[in-house]
Amino acid sequence: MTTTPVPMGSSPAIGSTPALEMRGITKRYPGVVANDGIDLVVRPGEIHALLGENGAGKSTLMNILYGLARPDEGQILLDGKEVRITGPSDAIARGISMVHQHFMLVPVLTVAENILLGDETMANPIFLDRGEASRRIRELGTRFGFEMDPDARVSTLSVGWQQRVEILKALYRQARILVLDEPTAVLTPQETDEIFAVLKRLAAEGHSIIFISHKLYEVLEIADQITVIRRGKVVGTRTPAQTNEGDLAELMVGREVQLTIDRGVSHPGKPVLEVSSLSVADDRGSEVVRGIDLEVRAGEILGIAGVAGNGQDELVETLVGLRRPIAGRISLAGRDVTGQSPRDMNEAGVAYVPADRHRFGLVLPFSIADNVVLTSYYREPFTHGQIRDDKAIESAAEEAIAAYDIRTQSATARAGTLSGGNQQKVVVAREFSRELALLVLDQPTRGLDVGSIEFIHRQVLAKRDAGTAVLLVSAELDEILELSDRIAVMYRGQLVATVDGRTADKQEIGLLMATGGRERTAELAVAAAAKEPS
Amino acid sequence: MTAAVPAAAEDRASRTTLRRIWAAVGLPLVSIILALFVGAIVIIASELLVGKGGLDLGLPLNAYGALFQGAFGSTDALVQTAVSTAPLLLAALGVGFGFKSGLFNIGAQGQYLTGALGAVAMGVALAGAPAIAAVPLSVLAGMAAGAVWGFIPGFLKATRGAHEVVTTIMLNYVAISLLAALVAGPLNTPKSISPVTKDVGNASLPVLIGSNGHLGILIALLMVALVWFVLYRTTFGFEVRTVGANPDAARYAGMHPRLLTILTMTICGGLAGLAGAGDLLGVSHQMTSSFSTTVGFDSIAVALLGRSTPVGILFGAILFGAMRAGAPLMQIQAGIPAELIDVIQGTVLFFLVATPVIGRFRFLRGAHTGLDTTQITRSYGEASR
Q1: ipTM, 2 decimals?
Q2: Which of A80, B23, B294, B366 qualifies as a cystine partner to A17, CB 3.0-4.6 A?
Q3: pTM flag (> 0.80)
Q4: Do residues A517 and A499 lie in contact, with contact meaning Cβ atoms separated by under 8 Å?
């Protein structure tokens, strides 16, 4: 009955019947109440931010809206009519679409093919109507302020454009309610501004947007309404005019949060990590780190800023021994460690918090205890000879759970059952709880809530003050600016600039991240112009 | 009121335990029941179409009754079940060990055959030697031969990135031909009509119970405990499981996935080789050029049924072993061809693998799937990195 979409051109009617109303949603899982009587009202043309720590129940609520989970209690109303959403296809048919944090796109297919996937526009029962699909995609793009080439391969698009493809995919299916799960987590500040412009136009056309984010200033910038969830309950609803970052953070975490940590004064000592003319190839063999020189001193944090995919992951993997360089030299406290194994590096006092905790950092089907000893399982006191000492392993895990405030029922719970923030705390607990020479952090707070971010940042600063050299890679410019003593910008495999962390300008670094520096851009333009006539 | 609280807590605890058990055994159990149901339909339909009895809805019950009788109905039947279970158990422990580290060892059959071949070669050579030396040496020879047959694909995967599914299938054929060549050639008994080796004599496994309940049964049971211990109580087992669950994290943790791949495949081969050695030294005592069973292939189904855990595999092997042991009586008493059990076994496997289909049953929600396909298929091409 509600499957008929609102005609695209109809004018928005803010203040009329809510487009979506969730009433008293309760969802219980064994041992936890994930949602406890949550009310959420989203009006047509409204950008509604959903704010909450990891594990607060945002995902559960959105899964219920998207038909992936059934509520134990409560009602869902679309345009004032109660509905039962039976699954994602039902949700899509009712005009609800989700843009996931990790894009669900097929890289080798074109934009049009990706958009058609699952909802094919057919010329006849056998063939796709590519012409019609392309026309509609162009038209939609133009309407919301960007030119999308339907025949471009998704793998050639930047992350920001891939996100637009996801949004187009939702619009193509005539979504009226769009759920965006941390849409800016992977974007540069400039890309974020562009996406916000798109979202504002969508809202102006009467679409309702549910915007999930941890970034308070973003929420304040874009949202019309903000609902804050804590431990499965709605703890407050605000408009941006009524609130500020401190107020929101306090609501979210349930206590006062220091949003910017006083990083204190650093006392850099001797160089710990010295890298000279390091070049590294990625899995496909193309050189993605091209002759990097860098130095990190004891008691100093070097931040490497850059848009994801500019060789940072490969650089970091090489530094910790997971990847062999094709050229260059790495030395640790004056000792050449080029090409050493991960275990050698680990034993030399190098700790590593990987960007992808699911890929490298954790074994999800294993217990928290097994994950806490993942890099030290073979040593005393966890192993005697070849025989594991489960008691020692469990007590180490219990210490870690207490020291790092990991929220879990027990040390034997599977790592996969923890929320993202708590999973990251397991990784941090493992890597931080020993004497370190060098700490390598790759996106240490990606996808985490403010409470967890504050916690992890404090731990990093404590390590720095204890004399550890820290290399911090992050696509999160705020994080870099907040922690780093020096900032290097990485662009296409090279460090294009190094600036002082205390005097750095956010816009300038953002521009360096996006272009690699004005001089360089000028060079490229000259080179391109030189090629032009031929 | 004060009494009600602990009672409720206890109730919740027991329900949690029940849920755990159901998660582990739900799917295999349902698969088995569905397979027996499909078997019943096959029995009724084949009797209706080609038999003389016409429509006989009671026939499946008679057949299954006889099958059960033949497997568990007497001491002899029980011994026979144990004898059929032992090789399945050993080979499936090997396959399951491979699954745990993300390796899909299709080569249990080849490893089983080379194991039997190694055992018969050593057994014939030591046929006249004292049993105290002949038996262990022949068993070890079989195990070593199987281990070599596991080492080869492991080595190829670790060094060249050759996928073990392909290489182990190929090595199955090589094993069949190698066996035929050796039995017809150097191991052949002079002046025999058709190729056959000599009897293994003193190298035969001692009979412990009934007419043919040989030592291999005990070895198989010991291996259940040993494999469990290695997997869950040793650092090596932890490394094996880590590589299986997340090879990237294993590298990150400083483990050596390539070395572990070689070791794991060698152990898989050794266990399957032990199965072959047990059958040869305990049951057939000599080898013809057509020496063959389906133990190696059935063991894959058993490992899946047992969800790769040693205890699960023990139950799976007993089920399949009992069907093998009971089939002759079913054929005699109910007139149902023994091959029906192949239908049932195949159907069990089908339902286990077709989890997305039967996983839709409401009551199976929360039950673990029988085959962790991601874990198995992810191993594709990993070694080349």
Answers
A1: 0.79
A2: A80
A3: no
A4: no
